[in-house]
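Hey all, quick one. A colleague (J.T.) asked me to put the manganese (II) ion job into the tracker so the inputs and the structure tokens live in one place instead of scattered across chat threads. No bug as far as I know, just bookkeeping. Sequence used:
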Amino acid sequence: MTRKTVILIGAPVDSGKRRPGCLMGPDAYRTAGLPGALRDLGYKVEDMGNLTPASHQPDTNDGKLFAPNETIAWTHRLTRTAEMAMQRGLPIFMGGDHSLSLGTVAGVANHAASVGRPLFVLWLDAHSDFHTAETTDSGNLHGTPLGYVTGREGFGGFPKVQNRVPHANICIMGLRSVDPAERAALEETDIRYHDMREIDENGVGRLVSAFLKDVEAANGLLHVSLDVDFLDPMAAPAVVTTVPGGATIREGHLIMEMVSDSGLMTSLDLVELNPFLDERGRTAQVMVDLAASGLGRRVFDRPTRAAN
Ligand SMILES: NC(=[NH2+])NCCC[C@H](N)C(=O)O
Ligand SMILES: [Mn+2]
Ligand SMILES: [Mn+2]
């Protein structure tokens, strides 16, 4: 049997917000043992090292948007890299802040179109990241990737999105901080979004399984984008945009284990880790463990029986 290949791609993107530190993310994931954890699960692991953005004019940062040139340059680089990596294995994009997903999701969507399958996206995040470069209040482009990949207008200067992700193929879980402009735009779409209250009332299992069923029925590819701030800050402190009241580590594992059971995930982003804010690497470790669950790590080999 040929072993499945996981391609680790360091994307030290730090241009999506003002406070630096996410550039150290890829090396923190390596230090926390991501490559070894995947090898232990039986994968062939290739590490492409850390990428750099395409060449670009330096940002002046005298306008509303922070570092647009650099983020556009990363979007170019990551779109191409994602397209290439998808042909060879399952890419894990080790961020980097969430603006990296403008490129990774756009590239994965191009790949999905080229193989004639629909792309689905599971977005695990306290935020909906559905702004455009025009609606953002903060000017931080890490708040815009879902707006971009769904083809919203208001991204002048960015590469044109070739294959939009259809709204109905997106599921956002973990919401507890949505800006008014994002909320209004989101409510006009049929994107499914589950805030923390819905998670509390239903449990993550039920919500995720409904989505995974649809991915399977459509023979879709599944991209998972895991933002550190999906988790509660007590469990995962190493992120700038903490919002209290987030998911537990167990909820994170259940989602990732169910994703793995489904066999549907074809690419993964690990984003927003700021190792400068971490406590002895514990957030990096939680993210590595969640990634491992998503790729098949189990407490027991056989599925444990549900209570009824
Ligand atoms: N990927 C993230 N952490 N995004 C946070 C975005 C926060 C806020 N909505 C903004 O646009 O500035
Ligand atoms: Mn995010
Ligand atoms: Mn977030």
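Adding what we noticed when we looked at it: The longest strand covers residues 5-11. The chain is about 35% helix and 15% strand.
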